[in-house]
Amino acid sequence: MAPHGDKSDAAEEAMVAEAEKRPISTVLIVIAMQTEALPLVNKFNLTEAPDSVFPKGVPWVRYHGFYKDLQINLVWPGKDESLGVDCVGTVPASLVTYASIQALQPDLIINAGTAGGFKDKGACIGDVYLASDVAYHDRRIPIPVFDLYGVGLRQACSTPTLQNELNLKVGKLSTGNSLDMSPHDEASIVANDATVKDMEGAAVAYVADLLKVPAIFVKAVTDIIDGEKPTAEEFLQNLVAVTAALEEGVTKVIDFINGKSLSDL
Amino acid sequence: MAPHGDKSDAAEEAMVAEAEKRPISTVLIVIAMQTEALPLVNKFNLTEAPDSVFPKGVPWVRYHGFYKDLQINLVWPGKDESLGVDCVGTVPASLVTYASIQALQPDLIINAGTAGGFKDKGACIGDVYLASDVAYHDRRIPIPVFDLYGVGLRQACSTPTLQNELNLKVGKLSTGNSLDMSPHDEASIVANDATVKDMEGAAVAYVADLLKVPAIFVKAVTDIIDGEKPTAEEFLQNLVAVTAALEEGVTKVIDFINGKSLSDL
Protein backbone atom coordinates (compact mmCIF):
# COMPACT_ATOMS: atom_id res chain seq x y z
CA MET A 1 0.00 0.00 0.00
CA ALA A 2 1.09 3.59 -0.53
CA PRO A 3 2.65 5.26 2.51
CA HIS A 4 0.29 7.37 4.54
CA GLY A 5 2.73 10.18 5.36
CA ASP A 6 3.81 11.51 8.72
CA LYS A 7 0.62 12.89 10.08
CA SER A 8 -1.39 10.90 12.55
CA ASP A 9 -5.06 10.19 11.92
CA ALA A 10 -6.01 12.54 14.75
CA ALA A 11 -4.02 15.39 13.23
CA GLU A 12 -5.60 14.70 9.85
CA GLU A 13 -9.09 14.68 11.34
CA ALA A 14 -8.37 18.02 12.99
CA MET A 15 -7.24 19.42 9.63
CA VAL A 16 -10.40 18.17 7.94
CA ALA A 17 -12.58 19.70 10.68
CA GLU A 18 -10.71 23.00 10.29
CA ALA A 19 -11.16 22.93 6.49
CA GLU A 20 -14.90 22.39 6.92
CA LYS A 21 -15.17 25.68 8.79
CA ARG A 22 -13.16 27.80 6.31
CA PRO A 23 -15.13 29.58 3.57
CA ILE A 24 -15.13 27.59 0.35
CA SER A 25 -12.69 29.24 -2.02
CA THR A 26 -12.00 27.00 -5.03
CA VAL A 27 -14.79 25.11 -6.78
CA LEU A 28 -14.24 22.51 -9.48
CA ILE A 29 -17.21 21.95 -11.81
CA VAL A 30 -16.89 18.69 -13.79
CA ILE A 31 -19.10 18.51 -16.90
CA ALA A 32 -19.14 15.84 -19.62
CA MET A 33 -20.51 17.70 -22.65
CA GLN A 34 -19.70 21.03 -24.27
CA THR A 35 -23.42 21.80 -24.69
CA GLU A 36 -23.86 21.43 -20.93
CA ALA A 37 -20.72 23.46 -20.16
CA LEU A 38 -21.09 26.57 -22.31
CA PRO A 39 -24.13 28.17 -20.57
CA LEU A 40 -22.18 28.02 -17.29
CA VAL A 41 -18.99 29.30 -18.90
CA ASN A 42 -20.97 32.34 -20.09
CA LYS A 43 -22.92 32.78 -16.86
CA PHE A 44 -19.78 32.94 -14.71
CA ASN A 45 -17.69 34.79 -17.33
CA LEU A 46 -15.10 32.02 -17.39
CA THR A 47 -12.31 31.98 -19.94
CA GLU A 48 -10.41 29.04 -21.39
CA ALA A 49 -7.10 28.70 -19.59
CA PRO A 50 -4.25 29.09 -22.12
CA ASP A 51 -1.69 27.58 -19.73
CA SER A 52 -3.00 24.05 -19.59
CA VAL A 53 -2.54 22.32 -16.26
CA PHE A 54 -3.07 19.05 -18.14
CA PRO A 55 -0.52 16.96 -20.05
CA LYS A 56 0.25 17.84 -23.64
CA GLY A 57 -2.02 16.16 -26.16
CA VAL A 58 -5.07 15.45 -23.98
CA PRO A 59 -8.30 17.11 -25.23
CA TRP A 60 -9.37 18.18 -21.72
CA VAL A 61 -10.48 21.80 -21.44
CA ARG A 62 -10.38 24.03 -18.39
CA TYR A 63 -12.32 27.27 -18.10
CA HIS A 64 -11.65 29.46 -15.11
CA GLY A 65 -12.48 32.77 -13.52
CA PHE A 66 -13.65 34.53 -10.38
CA TYR A 67 -17.32 34.82 -9.51
CA LYS A 68 -18.17 36.69 -6.30
CA ASP A 69 -15.71 35.28 -3.72
CA LEU A 70 -15.16 32.00 -5.53
CA GLN A 71 -12.46 30.81 -7.85
CA ILE A 72 -14.32 28.65 -10.33
CA ASN A 73 -12.71 26.02 -12.54
CA LEU A 74 -14.96 24.25 -14.99
CA VAL A 75 -13.42 21.22 -16.68
CA TRP A 76 -14.72 19.23 -19.59
CA PRO A 77 -13.01 16.11 -21.06
CA GLY A 78 -13.16 17.67 -24.54
CA LYS A 79 -13.82 16.04 -27.88
CA ASP A 80 -12.53 12.64 -28.92
CA GLU A 81 -9.50 13.30 -31.11
CA SER A 82 -10.49 10.99 -33.96
CA LEU A 83 -14.31 11.04 -33.75
CA GLY A 84 -14.99 14.62 -32.67
CA VAL A 85 -17.73 13.81 -30.13
CA ASP A 86 -17.72 14.71 -26.43
CA CYS A 87 -15.74 12.24 -24.31
CA VAL A 88 -18.71 11.10 -22.21
CA GLY A 89 -18.68 8.20 -19.75
CA THR A 90 -16.85 7.15 -16.63
CA VAL A 91 -13.23 6.82 -17.81
CA PRO A 92 -12.70 10.34 -19.25
CA ALA A 93 -14.69 11.84 -16.33
CA SER A 94 -12.54 10.04 -13.77
CA LEU A 95 -9.30 11.04 -15.51
CA VAL A 96 -10.14 14.73 -15.84
CA THR A 97 -11.43 14.82 -12.25
CA TYR A 98 -8.21 13.19 -11.00
CA ALA A 99 -5.92 15.51 -12.99
CA SER A 100 -7.94 18.58 -11.95
CA ILE A 101 -7.83 17.72 -8.26
CA GLN A 102 -4.08 17.19 -8.49
CA ALA A 103 -3.53 20.52 -10.26
CA LEU A 104 -6.13 22.74 -8.60
CA GLN A 105 -6.73 21.33 -5.08
CA PRO A 106 -10.42 22.34 -5.02
CA ASP A 107 -12.42 22.71 -1.81
CA LEU A 108 -15.54 21.30 -3.44
CA ILE A 109 -16.43 19.43 -6.63
CA ILE A 110 -19.75 19.94 -8.42
CA ASN A 111 -20.46 17.28 -11.02
CA ALA A 112 -23.14 18.93 -13.15
CA GLY A 113 -24.89 17.52 -16.17
CA THR A 114 -27.97 16.12 -17.78
CA ALA A 115 -29.57 12.83 -16.79
CA GLY A 116 -32.45 10.54 -17.49
CA GLY A 117 -35.22 10.55 -14.89
CA PHE A 118 -37.87 8.05 -13.77
CA LYS A 119 -41.41 9.44 -13.77
CA ASP A 120 -42.40 6.67 -11.32
CA LYS A 121 -40.04 8.39 -8.89
CA GLY A 122 -41.50 11.83 -9.63
CA ALA A 123 -39.02 13.11 -12.22
CA CYS A 124 -40.14 15.49 -14.99
CA ILE A 125 -38.26 16.94 -17.98
CA GLY A 126 -36.27 20.01 -16.85
CA ASP A 127 -36.21 19.05 -13.14
CA VAL A 128 -32.90 19.74 -11.43
CA TYR A 129 -31.88 17.10 -8.90
CA LEU A 130 -29.30 17.09 -6.17
CA ALA A 131 -28.08 13.50 -5.70
CA SER A 132 -28.12 12.10 -2.17
CA ASP A 133 -26.20 8.94 -3.18
CA VAL A 134 -24.45 7.70 -6.28
CA ALA A 135 -23.83 4.12 -7.42
CA TYR A 136 -23.08 2.13 -10.58
CA HIS A 137 -25.62 -0.03 -12.42
CA ASP A 138 -23.32 -1.62 -15.02
CA ARG A 139 -20.62 -3.25 -12.89
CA ARG A 140 -22.06 -6.67 -12.08
CA ILE A 141 -19.48 -8.88 -10.33
CA PRO A 142 -21.34 -11.84 -8.79
CA ILE A 143 -18.65 -12.75 -6.21
CA PRO A 144 -19.22 -11.86 -2.53
CA VAL A 145 -17.83 -8.40 -1.60
CA PHE A 146 -16.80 -7.79 -5.24
CA ASP A 147 -20.54 -7.37 -5.88
CA LEU A 148 -20.64 -4.45 -3.42
CA TYR A 149 -17.44 -3.01 -4.89
CA GLY A 150 -19.08 -3.14 -8.32
CA VAL A 151 -22.12 -1.18 -7.13
CA GLY A 152 -19.72 1.37 -5.60
CA LEU A 153 -22.34 3.16 -3.51
CA ARG A 154 -21.15 6.52 -2.17
CA GLN A 155 -22.98 9.33 -0.42
CA ALA A 156 -22.71 12.83 -1.79
CA CYS A 157 -21.32 15.50 0.55
CA SER A 158 -24.06 16.26 3.07
CA THR A 159 -25.76 19.58 2.23
CA PRO A 160 -29.02 19.74 4.27
CA THR A 161 -29.20 23.55 4.41
CA LEU A 162 -28.54 23.96 0.69
CA GLN A 163 -31.21 21.35 -0.10
CA ASN A 164 -33.83 23.03 2.09
CA GLU A 165 -33.17 26.60 1.08
CA LEU A 166 -32.86 26.06 -2.67
CA ASN A 167 -35.84 23.74 -2.89
CA LEU A 168 -34.05 21.39 -5.30
CA LYS A 169 -35.43 17.89 -5.74
CA VAL A 170 -33.30 15.23 -4.06
CA GLY A 171 -32.88 11.67 -5.35
CA LYS A 172 -30.45 8.82 -5.81
CA LEU A 173 -28.25 8.81 -8.92
CA SER A 174 -27.21 5.67 -10.79
CA THR A 175 -24.34 5.68 -13.30
CA GLY A 176 -23.52 3.50 -16.29
CA ASN A 177 -21.63 3.87 -19.56
CA SER A 178 -24.64 3.31 -21.81
CA LEU A 179 -27.25 5.87 -22.81
CA ASP A 180 -29.84 3.14 -23.25
CA MET A 181 -31.02 0.80 -20.47
CA SER A 182 -30.78 -2.99 -20.80
CA PRO A 183 -32.95 -5.22 -18.56
CA HIS A 184 -29.82 -6.01 -16.48
CA ASP A 185 -29.09 -2.30 -16.06
CA GLU A 186 -32.74 -1.72 -15.14
CA ALA A 187 -32.63 -4.35 -12.38
CA SER A 188 -29.52 -2.72 -10.92
CA ILE A 189 -31.04 0.77 -11.18
CA VAL A 190 -34.11 -0.47 -9.29
CA ALA A 191 -31.81 -2.07 -6.68
CA ASN A 192 -30.01 1.29 -6.42
CA ASP A 193 -33.44 2.94 -5.82
CA ALA A 194 -32.40 5.60 -8.33
CA THR A 195 -34.48 8.55 -9.50
CA VAL A 196 -31.92 9.81 -12.02
CA LYS A 197 -29.47 7.99 -14.29
CA ASP A 198 -26.30 9.43 -15.81
CA MET A 199 -23.02 8.33 -17.37
CA GLU A 200 -20.39 9.89 -15.06
CA GLY A 201 -21.54 10.56 -11.48
CA ALA A 202 -20.31 7.40 -9.71
CA ALA A 203 -16.87 7.74 -11.34
CA VAL A 204 -16.52 11.36 -10.23
CA ALA A 205 -17.64 10.27 -6.73
CA TYR A 206 -15.02 7.50 -6.73
CA VAL A 207 -12.14 9.85 -7.55
CA ALA A 208 -13.37 12.55 -5.15
CA ASP A 209 -13.55 9.95 -2.38
CA LEU A 210 -10.11 8.57 -3.27
CA LEU A 211 -8.53 12.02 -2.96
CA LYS A 212 -10.78 13.16 -0.10
CA VAL A 213 -12.49 16.08 -1.81
CA PRO A 214 -16.19 16.63 -1.01
CA ALA A 215 -18.45 16.32 -4.06
CA ILE A 216 -22.05 17.14 -4.92
CA PHE A 217 -24.05 16.16 -8.00
CA VAL A 218 -26.46 18.48 -9.82
CA LYS A 219 -28.37 16.71 -12.59
CA ALA A 220 -31.05 18.12 -14.91
CA VAL A 221 -33.53 15.71 -16.50
CA THR A 222 -33.47 15.57 -20.33
CA ASP A 223 -35.47 12.38 -20.83
CA ILE A 224 -37.97 10.17 -19.05
CA ILE A 225 -36.59 6.65 -19.01
CA ASP A 226 -39.86 4.95 -18.09
CA GLY A 227 -41.82 7.06 -20.60
CA GLU A 228 -42.95 6.45 -24.17
CA LYS A 229 -40.19 8.10 -26.23
CA PRO A 230 -36.88 6.47 -27.19
CA THR A 231 -34.14 7.80 -24.89
CA ALA A 232 -31.68 8.98 -27.57
CA GLU A 233 -34.38 10.93 -29.45
CA GLU A 234 -35.79 12.57 -26.32
CA PHE A 235 -32.30 13.32 -25.00
CA LEU A 236 -31.24 15.15 -28.19
CA GLN A 237 -34.61 16.95 -28.43
CA ASN A 238 -34.35 18.38 -24.91
CA LEU A 239 -30.60 18.73 -24.46
CA VAL A 240 -30.25 22.45 -25.27
CA ALA A 241 -33.41 23.55 -23.43
CA VAL A 242 -32.56 21.54 -20.32
CA THR A 243 -29.03 22.95 -20.17
CA ALA A 244 -30.73 26.30 -19.40
CA ALA A 245 -32.40 24.66 -16.38
CA LEU A 246 -29.04 23.14 -15.44
CA GLU A 247 -27.35 26.55 -15.69
CA GLU A 248 -30.04 28.04 -13.46
CA GLY A 249 -29.72 25.21 -10.92
CA VAL A 250 -25.93 25.34 -10.75
CA THR A 251 -26.01 29.15 -10.45
CA LYS A 252 -28.38 28.88 -7.46
CA VAL A 253 -25.99 26.38 -5.88
CA ILE A 254 -22.92 28.56 -6.55
CA ASP A 255 -24.69 31.68 -5.22
CA PHE A 256 -25.64 29.75 -2.08
CA ILE A 257 -22.12 28.36 -1.60
CA ASN A 258 -20.46 31.78 -1.96
CA GLY A 259 -19.13 32.97 1.42
CA LYS A 260 -20.07 29.72 3.19
CA SER A 261 -18.00 26.87 4.58
CA LEU A 262 -18.63 23.16 3.95
CA SER A 263 -20.24 22.85 7.38
CA ASP A 264 -22.72 25.64 6.45
CA LEU A 265 -24.05 23.63 3.54
CA MET B 1 -8.69 22.39 -26.78
CA ALA B 2 -5.42 22.08 -24.89
CA PRO B 3 -2.45 23.76 -26.56
CA HIS B 4 -0.32 21.45 -28.65
CA GLY B 5 3.05 22.92 -27.73
CA ASP B 6 5.75 24.40 -29.95
CA LYS B 7 6.87 21.44 -31.95
CA SER B 8 5.59 20.99 -35.47
CA ASP B 9 3.91 17.72 -36.45
CA ALA B 10 6.88 16.83 -38.66
CA ALA B 11 9.35 17.27 -35.79
CA GLU B 12 7.11 15.17 -33.56
CA GLU B 13 6.87 12.40 -36.13
CA ALA B 14 10.66 12.38 -36.43
CA MET B 15 10.94 12.05 -32.63
CA VAL B 16 8.47 9.15 -32.63
CA ALA B 17 10.38 7.40 -35.44
CA GLU B 18 13.61 7.90 -33.51
CA ALA B 19 12.04 6.48 -30.33
CA GLU B 20 10.87 3.40 -32.22
CA LYS B 21 14.47 2.57 -33.08
CA ARG B 22 15.92 2.99 -29.55
CA PRO B 23 16.08 -0.13 -27.36
CA ILE B 24 13.08 -0.31 -25.04
CA SER B 25 14.25 0.68 -21.60
CA THR B 26 11.28 1.23 -19.27
CA VAL B 27 8.30 -1.13 -19.25
CA LEU B 28 5.07 -0.49 -17.35
CA ILE B 29 3.05 -3.60 -16.52
CA VAL B 30 -0.55 -2.77 -15.52
CA ILE B 31 -2.36 -5.55 -13.62
CA ALA B 32 -5.78 -5.44 -11.93
CA MET B 33 -5.50 -8.11 -9.23
CA GLN B 34 -2.90 -8.95 -6.59
CA THR B 35 -3.22 -12.66 -7.38
CA GLU B 36 -2.26 -11.92 -10.98
CA ALA B 37 0.56 -9.56 -9.97
CA LEU B 38 2.50 -11.53 -7.36
CA PRO B 39 3.91 -14.32 -9.57
CA LEU B 40 5.40 -11.62 -11.82
CA VAL B 41 6.69 -9.61 -8.86
CA ASN B 42 8.54 -12.74 -7.71
CA LYS B 43 9.69 -13.77 -11.18
CA PHE B 44 11.33 -10.39 -11.91
CA ASN B 45 12.51 -9.84 -8.32
CA LEU B 46 10.57 -6.60 -8.06
CA THR B 47 10.23 -4.75 -4.78
CA GLU B 48 7.48 -2.48 -3.57
CA ALA B 49 8.55 1.14 -4.04
CA PRO B 50 8.63 2.89 -0.65
CA ASP B 51 8.72 6.38 -2.24
CA SER B 52 5.29 6.39 -3.81
CA VAL B 53 5.05 8.29 -7.07
CA PHE B 54 1.30 8.39 -6.47
CA PRO B 55 -0.73 10.87 -4.41
CA LYS B 56 -1.09 10.32 -0.70
CA GLY B 57 -4.04 8.14 0.25
CA VAL B 58 -4.55 6.21 -2.98
CA PRO B 59 -4.26 2.41 -2.63
CA TRP B 60 -2.23 2.03 -5.84
CA VAL B 61 0.88 -0.10 -5.51
CA ARG B 62 4.05 0.08 -7.59
CA TYR B 63 6.64 -2.69 -7.67
CA HIS B 64 9.86 -2.00 -9.50
CA GLY B 65 13.26 -3.44 -10.32
CA PHE B 66 15.74 -4.22 -13.07
CA TYR B 67 15.50 -7.40 -15.12
CA LYS B 68 18.17 -7.91 -17.78
CA ASP B 69 18.41 -4.53 -19.55
CA LEU B 70 14.90 -3.43 -18.64
CA GLN B 71 13.57 -1.22 -15.89
CA ILE B 72 10.29 -2.84 -14.95
CA ASN B 73 7.47 -1.11 -13.11
CA LEU B 74 4.46 -3.22 -12.23
CA VAL B 75 1.46 -1.27 -11.00
CA TRP B 76 -1.71 -2.57 -9.43
CA PRO B 77 -4.67 -0.37 -8.31
CA GLY B 78 -4.57 -1.99 -4.87
CA LYS B 79 -7.42 -2.93 -2.58
CA ASP B 80 -10.60 -0.92 -2.09
CA GLU B 81 -10.13 1.01 1.14
CA SER B 82 -13.47 0.09 2.70
CA LEU B 83 -14.21 -3.31 1.13
CA GLY B 84 -10.73 -4.83 0.88
CA VAL B 85 -11.15 -6.33 -2.60
CA ASP B 86 -8.98 -5.62 -5.65
CA CYS B 87 -9.99 -2.43 -7.48
CA VAL B 88 -10.90 -4.16 -10.75
CA GLY B 89 -12.60 -2.49 -13.71
CA THR B 90 -12.01 0.36 -16.10
CA VAL B 91 -11.93 3.41 -13.82
CA PRO B 92 -9.15 2.33 -11.39
CA ALA B 93 -7.16 0.82 -14.30
CA SER B 94 -7.38 4.06 -16.28
CA LEU B 95 -6.39 6.18 -13.27
CA VAL B 96 -3.36 4.09 -12.28
CA THR B 97 -2.25 3.88 -15.93
CA TYR B 98 -2.55 7.66 -16.29
CA ALA B 99 -0.66 8.42 -13.07
CA SER B 100 2.04 5.85 -13.89
CA ILE B 101 2.65 7.23 -17.38
CA GLN B 102 2.94 10.73 -15.94
CA ALA B 103 5.39 9.62 -13.25
CA LEU B 104 7.44 6.99 -15.09
CA GLN B 105 7.32 7.87 -18.82
CA PRO B 106 7.42 4.22 -19.95
CA ASP B 107 8.50 3.17 -23.45
CA LEU B 108 5.92 0.39 -23.53
CA ILE B 109 2.84 -0.66 -21.52
CA ILE B 110 1.92 -4.31 -21.02
CA ASN B 111 -1.60 -4.77 -19.68
CA ALA B 112 -1.49 -8.32 -18.33
CA GLY B 113 -4.26 -10.25 -16.65
CA THR B 114 -6.82 -12.99 -16.74
CA ALA B 115 -9.77 -13.07 -19.09
CA GLY B 116 -12.76 -15.09 -20.15
CA GLY B 117 -12.42 -16.91 -23.48
CA PHE B 118 -14.84 -18.16 -26.12
CA LYS B 119 -14.39 -21.82 -27.05
CA ASP B 120 -16.19 -21.13 -30.34
CA LYS B 121 -13.24 -18.91 -31.19
CA GLY B 122 -10.72 -21.56 -30.11
CA ALA B 123 -9.95 -20.45 -26.54
CA CYS B 124 -9.06 -23.03 -23.85
CA ILE B 125 -8.44 -22.62 -20.12
CA GLY B 126 -4.81 -21.54 -19.58
CA ASP B 127 -4.31 -20.14 -23.09
CA VAL B 128 -2.33 -16.91 -23.21
CA TYR B 129 -3.55 -14.44 -25.81
CA LEU B 130 -1.97 -11.36 -27.29
CA ALA B 131 -4.77 -8.94 -28.24
CA SER B 132 -4.74 -7.55 -31.77
CA ASP B 133 -7.53 -5.04 -31.01
CA VAL B 134 -9.41 -3.89 -27.96
CA ALA B 135 -12.92 -2.44 -27.68
CA TYR B 136 -15.71 -1.95 -25.14
CA HIS B 137 -18.90 -4.02 -25.02
CA ASP B 138 -20.78 -2.11 -22.30
CA ARG B 139 -20.86 1.45 -23.63
CA ARG B 140 -23.98 1.50 -25.81
CA ILE B 141 -24.74 5.05 -27.03
CA PRO B 142 -27.27 4.78 -29.88
CA ILE B 143 -26.54 8.20 -31.43
CA PRO B 144 -24.50 8.40 -34.67
CA VAL B 145 -20.73 8.74 -34.05
CA PHE B 146 -21.28 8.48 -30.27
CA ASP B 147 -21.99 4.78 -30.97
CA LEU B 148 -18.45 4.39 -32.39
CA TYR B 149 -16.98 6.40 -29.52
CA GLY B 150 -18.72 4.03 -27.09
CA VAL B 151 -17.19 0.96 -28.74
CA GLY B 152 -13.80 2.69 -28.53
CA LEU B 153 -12.00 0.28 -30.87
CA ARG B 154 -8.23 0.59 -30.72
CA GLN B 155 -5.45 -1.52 -32.19
CA ALA B 156 -2.73 -2.81 -29.92
CA CYS B 157 0.84 -1.82 -30.77
CA SER B 158 1.86 -3.86 -33.81
CA THR B 159 4.16 -6.74 -32.80
CA PRO B 160 4.34 -9.16 -35.77
CA THR B 161 7.79 -10.58 -34.93
CA LEU B 162 6.93 -11.13 -31.27
CA GLN B 163 3.70 -12.88 -32.25
CA ASN B 164 5.41 -15.21 -34.70
CA GLU B 165 8.42 -16.08 -32.58
CA LEU B 166 6.62 -16.64 -29.28
CA ASN B 167 3.78 -18.61 -30.80
CA LEU B 168 1.16 -16.86 -28.65
CA LYS B 169 -2.46 -17.05 -29.71
CA VAL B 170 -3.77 -13.77 -31.14
CA GLY B 171 -7.36 -12.57 -30.81
CA LYS B 172 -9.56 -9.55 -30.27
CA LEU B 173 -10.23 -8.40 -26.71
CA SER B 174 -13.52 -6.92 -25.50
CA THR B 175 -13.79 -5.01 -22.23
CA GLY B 176 -16.66 -4.35 -19.85
CA ASN B 177 -17.11 -3.65 -16.14
CA SER B 178 -19.12 -6.81 -15.40
CA LEU B 179 -17.75 -10.28 -14.78
CA ASP B 180 -20.97 -11.81 -16.09
CA MET B 181 -22.32 -11.34 -19.62
CA SER B 182 -25.80 -9.97 -20.26
CA PRO B 183 -27.49 -10.57 -23.65
CA HIS B 184 -26.75 -6.92 -24.56
CA ASP B 185 -23.07 -7.38 -23.68
CA GLU B 186 -23.01 -10.62 -25.67
CA ALA B 187 -24.36 -8.90 -28.79
CA SER B 188 -21.65 -6.24 -28.51
CA ILE B 189 -18.94 -8.84 -27.90
CA VAL B 190 -20.06 -10.68 -31.04
CA ALA B 191 -20.03 -7.37 -32.94
CA ASN B 192 -16.49 -6.80 -31.62
CA ASP B 193 -15.54 -10.27 -32.96
CA ALA B 194 -13.83 -10.92 -29.60
CA THR B 195 -12.06 -14.10 -28.54
CA VAL B 196 -11.27 -12.88 -25.03
CA LYS B 197 -13.22 -10.68 -22.59
CA ASP B 198 -11.75 -8.71 -19.70
CA MET B 199 -12.58 -5.80 -17.40
CA GLU B 200 -9.74 -3.32 -18.05
CA GLY B 201 -8.08 -3.62 -21.49
CA ALA B 202 -10.00 -0.98 -23.45
CA ALA B 203 -9.53 1.57 -20.65
CA VAL B 204 -5.76 0.99 -20.54
CA ALA B 205 -5.72 1.29 -24.36
CA TYR B 206 -7.63 4.57 -24.15
CA VAL B 207 -5.17 6.16 -21.71
CA ALA B 208 -2.13 4.79 -23.57
CA ASP B 209 -3.49 6.25 -26.82
CA LEU B 210 -4.30 9.59 -25.13
CA LEU B 211 -0.72 9.93 -23.89
CA LYS B 212 0.87 8.31 -26.97
CA VAL B 213 2.49 5.33 -25.26
CA PRO B 214 2.44 2.03 -27.18
CA ALA B 215 0.54 -0.75 -25.40
CA ILE B 216 0.16 -4.51 -25.73
CA PHE B 217 -2.31 -6.81 -23.98
CA VAL B 218 -1.42 -10.26 -22.62
CA LYS B 219 -4.48 -12.14 -21.35
CA ALA B 220 -4.66 -15.67 -19.87
CA VAL B 221 -7.97 -17.53 -20.04
CA THR B 222 -9.49 -18.46 -16.63
CA ASP B 223 -12.99 -19.35 -17.79
CA ILE B 224 -14.89 -20.37 -20.89
CA ILE B 225 -17.75 -17.94 -21.37
CA ASP B 226 -19.68 -20.10 -23.86
CA GLY B 227 -19.14 -23.24 -21.76
CA GLU B 228 -21.25 -25.03 -19.17
CA LYS B 229 -19.89 -23.67 -15.87
CA PRO B 230 -20.98 -20.39 -14.25
CA THR B 231 -18.31 -17.72 -14.93
CA ALA B 232 -17.69 -16.62 -11.33
CA GLU B 233 -17.22 -20.21 -10.12
CA GLU B 234 -14.91 -21.20 -12.98
CA PHE B 235 -12.95 -17.93 -12.67
CA LEU B 236 -12.25 -18.46 -8.96
CA GLN B 237 -11.47 -22.16 -9.48
CA ASN B 238 -8.83 -21.47 -12.14
CA LEU B 239 -7.49 -18.07 -11.06
CA VAL B 240 -4.37 -19.22 -9.21
CA ALA B 241 -3.39 -21.94 -11.70
CA VAL B 242 -3.88 -19.66 -14.68
CA THR B 243 -1.76 -16.89 -13.14
CA ALA B 244 1.15 -19.33 -13.56
CA ALA B 245 0.42 -19.46 -17.30
CA LEU B 246 0.13 -15.67 -17.31
CA GLU B 247 3.51 -15.35 -15.55
CA GLU B 248 5.08 -17.67 -18.12
CA GLY B 249 3.52 -15.76 -21.03
CA VAL B 250 4.55 -12.33 -19.74
CA THR B 251 8.08 -13.60 -19.01
CA LYS B 252 8.41 -14.84 -22.60
CA VAL B 253 7.26 -11.41 -23.82
CA ILE B 254 9.67 -9.55 -21.51
CA ASP B 255 12.59 -11.82 -22.50
CA PHE B 256 11.78 -11.18 -26.15
CA ILE B 257 11.51 -7.41 -25.67
CA ASN B 258 14.83 -7.16 -23.83
CA GLY B 259 17.44 -5.45 -26.02
CA LYS B 260 14.95 -4.73 -28.79
CA SER B 261 13.36 -1.52 -30.05
CA LEU B 262 9.64 -1.03 -30.73
CA SER B 263 10.26 -1.45 -34.46
CA ASP B 264 11.89 -4.87 -33.78
CA LEU B 265 8.67 -6.19 -32.21
From TrEMBL, chains A, B:
Ranges of residues in domain Nucleoside phosphorylase: 27-254
GO terms, molecular function: methylthioadenosine nucleosidase activity
Single GO BP term: L-methionine salvage from methylthioadenosine
Superkingdom of the source species: Eukaryota
Coiled-coil residue windows: none
Annotated SUPFAM superfamilies: Purine and uridine phosphorylases
UniProt protein name: Nucleoside phosphorylase domain-containing protein
